[in-house]
Amino acid sequence: MKKYKYLLIIVCFGLLFWSYMIKKQRNQIKEAKSLPFYNVKVESVADGTYNSKCATSFYTVELDVTVADKKLTKIDVITNKGKGDDKVTAIADSMIAQNKSVVSIIDGAELASLAFISCVDSALKKGTDESKLSE
Residue 20 half-sphere exposure, CB side, CA atoms within 13 Å? Predict the structure, then answer.
């Protein structure tokens, strides 16, 4: 009878932990959905270097994004911490090669990829005529 009692306790703790992890993941997905995405066309961005920061509960990134001659030329990662940080910087190479801020996300680092893309997009928005008018 004692074995069943301990087994029941272990199962209950396992279910509580599983429930906590599911809730945490759902909250992170909601947070990623709320990130700003502007889909800025690089051709509309003035030459220059633009800084942006993105901080979520699962990932923090700060970037300097450089545009020259209507092309995305450089993405310097200043801060890169959190879940998927070792994988997500590969997105920068894809952005530069495709000359756009919205690219495919990295498998295994989906949420961090969205935060990285949002951060680059926010930096590029600072160089558009629209943002200059609103400042």
Answer: 6
CA–CA distance, 61 with 80 (Å, rounded to integer): 5
- Would you state the structure tokens that stand for residue 127, as one six-digit string? 């160089």
What separation in angstroms does the CA of 34 have from each of 27, 55, 88, 103?
11, 12, 19, 18
Per-residue pLDDT reduced to its tens digit, 97-132: 999 998 998 888 888 899 999 999 999 999 987 644
Question: What is the residue whose two structure tokens read 């220059």?
Answer: 48
Residues contacting residue 92 through CB under 8 Å, at least 6 positions apart: 75, 77, 116, 120
CB atoms under 10 Å from CB of 25, counted, come to 12
- Check: pTM over 0.90? Answer yes or no: no
Confirm if 88 and 109 have CB atoms less than 8 A apart.
Answer: yes
* Chain-centroid distance, C-alpha 89: 10
